[in-house]
Fold:
Amino acid sequence: MKPYQKHVFICMGDNCSERGADGSHQDLLLAAVEQAVGDGLLGRGAIKVTQAQCLGACGFGPNVAVYPEGVWYYGVRPEDINEIVAEHLVAGRVVSRLLLHKFGETMPDEVVRDRVCGMVFHASEAVATFVYEGQTHYFCSDACLAVFRNDPTSILNAGHGHHASHGPAARVHSGH
Ligand code: FES
Structure:
């Protein structure tokens, strides 16, 4: 089997769906890829498209991630799909106006992760914050804050936002 050149994940989770991911993103993307294949711009089978249930960045949806680059696009509207295909998948250029972050690169300061549940969102959208040992931690809910306050040390030592650990929320400066 010939390996894919790129793998695109389109989030169809509840939060992204509420923000407008209604299935048209995938239909449009598949159609645009097919068009590019027909035009000889992409090889057949070069692009794999998969629906994702949650990419962990619900506050920014609808989200689309492209690998192997690890480029995450946020707030993607149906009318943005053709540009992602033409610019990124065909031409190899990141669509910077839709860029949430790129794997291995630091996320913007205003992007934070709730390390209890793992959700990524703008700091301004945090439901709760808590300062612990001089660092501000951001939470998507009072429930996550409560979990953190109960045992911040364990949560911080558990690493970044694992759902199972229900650890704490903190400003993320180091990317994923
Ligand atoms: S539902 Fe899409 S990132 Fe969570």
Observations:
- The chain has a mean pLDDT of 85.
